[in-house]
Amino acid sequence: MNSRHECFIIMPFVPELHYFYLFLQEHLKEEHNIDCERADNRILTIPLLEKIKEQILNAGVIIADITGRNANVFYELGLAHAYGKKVILITSDPIKEVPSDIRHYDFIHYDLQNHVEFFSKLNNALYHIFIEDYKDAYNKAITFLKAFNKETKMNCKPVSDQIFRIRFIKAERTQDIPHKTDTKRLRASLLPLIIENSTQVDVMECIITWLKEQRV
Fold this sequence. Notes:
Elements: E1 6-10, H1 18-32, E2 35-37, H2 48-58, E3 61-65, H3 71-82, E4 87-91, E5 107-109, H4 115-129, H5 131-152, H6 161-174, H7 183-194, H8 201-213
Parallel strand pairs: 1-2, 1-3, 3-4, 4-5
């Protein structure tokens, strides 16, 4: 699996955060097509520390909850930083209580009674972490659209980059988006996502015909 689809959650293993973790896990899957785990998710035959290192290394992003200044959380956070991983820091503690040695980082404060604002900020953070991935796909899709319009004499309009990102995430759930070097398959995957009215019958038929004519 593409590491971008995997998130490792660092948080204290306390009962009051269990349902928050499940809520977070569901949100990441539904909104971003990201699977997330924390260290107690799976039972493996390897020692726990080795399991944590492996999960951190395999993750495309780390979400670390430093609520309560848990020692294990800070140890795993240190590993994530040492491995150069992309980290989103969250806490339900007042920001002024964050330890001084990490206070210069950006934090997302959360209140379990106000999850809407929290998820909005989290979505924004994830978007900026993976923005280059989506920009690359969007720019490639625009190139395909220009060639399509030129060769078919169509005048299809592109969707915005935000709409494209939403479509791209949904498409990833049902199909394997090919590597960028596989031009033929990538063209077939991205063209319907970039065209504003790609579900219209005449446009859809034109897309199918054009794609069949492409040799490379």
